[in-house]
Amino acid sequence: MQKTYEYITTRRDIDTNHHVNNVIYLDFAYNALPKEISINFDKLEIYYKKQIKIGETIHCLYKQEGNSHIIAIKSQDEKTLHAILKFN
Asked: Is the full-model pTM beyond 0.90?
């Protein structure tokens, strides 16, 4: 997988449970996709693994497998997997 996007979470990303709101993961993934790719969001799978909290740096890694575009959202050291998003 290739690192395509890095982000430090801010207060605007946080929900009432004090972690990143689920819809923000879509924003992370969208920013990680190559610019030439147009995604139909009604064909989406999201696997949440570990919550992201305010001030954490995340790395988004991208790869294409056939017709699928896959984004892994990981911690800054890339040891913790936060989520996987798959677009077809």
From this structure: yes
